[in-house]
Design brief:
The structure is a single chain. By secondary structure, the protein is α/β, with parallel strands linked by helices. Helix content is 42%, strand content 14%. It has ten helices and nine strands. It has two domains: 187 residues, Rossmann fold; 107 residues, 3-Layer(aba) Sandwich (Rossmann fold), CATH 3.40.50.1100. Helix 4 links the parallel strand 3 and strand 4. It is globular and about 60 Å long. It has a five-stranded parallel sheet, with helices on both faces. Helix 2 packs across helix 3 and helix 7 crosses helix 8.
């Protein structure tokens, strides 16, 4: 991203983007990598249904429903919201894909995880064989997919110094750290989903590294908590500025919930000198999420 890089002080080739938003399933995003491994595990276990959950505009919910359809499985999704007056953004795509949608009201992270288990138990009592997937696919199996991604990235950019990634449930961050074997190589940007990222990411990274047969990652976990605003999905001025900068310098479309907040953190770190743009080679992990731009919450926001 040389035009954006020049704006932030990077030399040519110093700022790159990994386009995991272009994975080929129902609009794409980082969850496709996780679902590849999670769905394989579900099929191996004899599952006939996937059960997961997320917020109203969850990308993970959308892609889990799509993966279930590709595999001929049933799908139940728990949405931590009241139903909208009219579907917009990811909810339109959810309705197109057709999972059983359980509108569970305002639930915090832990309560939503519990409700996923409750819905799986309900299906099991009805004679189904459900496979419960945690929020964001943030299990050891899901995070292993980002060990694969780290190896792929290291082959593409052997001299990468830092990967910047949005942190929702933390599984993508943990998998990248496990694959790169060093916490200093990954900066996670808290988007306001999970309150215990500082503990969850290193714990997952160590477990994932162990399962993958890798040494435990060195260093201290890096999570930037300064840019999500007042809550998850908050349409901040800084996020709007980051979206406009990426779009108008690179033609790169980010989203207001995940990648926009990660780009805010990257821009701030470069401008404040916490990233040494002159000497460090940085990869921005584009995790997808564009459908959220078309939700009612952001109508008129970019003007």
């Amino acid at each position: 991203m040389d035009r954006l890089g020049a704006e932030l002080g990077f030399p040519s080739g110093g700022l790159l983007v990994k386009r995991d938003d272009l994975t080929a399933l129902a609009g794409g995003g980082n969850k496709v990598r996780k679902l590849e491994r999670l769905c394989a595990d579900a099929l191996a276990a004899g599952a006939d249904a996937l059960v997961t959950g997320g917020g109203r505009q969850s990308n993970h919910v959308r892609m889990t429903a799509a993966a279930a359809n590709r595999l001929g499985l049933a799908c139940t999704v728990v949405l931590a919201s009241e139903p909208p007056d009219a579907p917009t953004g990811n909810v339109v795509l959810d309705e197109l894909l057709g999972p059983e949608m359980v509108w569970a009201g305002d639930l915090d992270y832990a309560a939503l995880e519990e409700r996923i288990v409750v819905e799986a138990d309900r299906l099991r009592a009805c004679g189904h064989h459900p496979y419960a997937i945690p929020i964001g696919g943030a299990s050891t199996i899901g995070a292993l997919s980002y060990v694969d991604a780290a190896r792929e990235l290291a082959a593409q950019v052997p001299d990468v110094d830092l990967v910047v990634v949005a942190d929702g449930s933390g599984g993508t961050h943990a998998g990248l750290v496990a694959g790169l074997s060093d916490h200093a190589k990954v900066l996670g940007v808290d988007v306001g989903t999970r309150p215990d990222l500082d503990a969850a990411v290193p714990a997952m990274a160590e477990e994932v590294a162990s399962v993958a047969g890798l040494r435990a990652p060195i260093g201290i976990t890096q999570v930037d908590h300064e840019h999500f605003g007042t809550d998850y999905g908050d349409p901040t001025d800084a996020c709007r500025d980051a979206l406009l900068l990426a779009a108008r310098l690179e033609g790169l479309v980010l989203d207001p919930v995940y990648t926009g907040k990660a780009m805010v953190a990257l821009i701030a770190a470069a401008r404040e000198g916490r990233i040494d743009a002159a000497s460090q080679r940085v990869v921005f992990m584009h995790t997808g999420g564009m459908p959220a731009l078309f939700s009612s919450r952001y109508a008129g926001w970019l003007r």
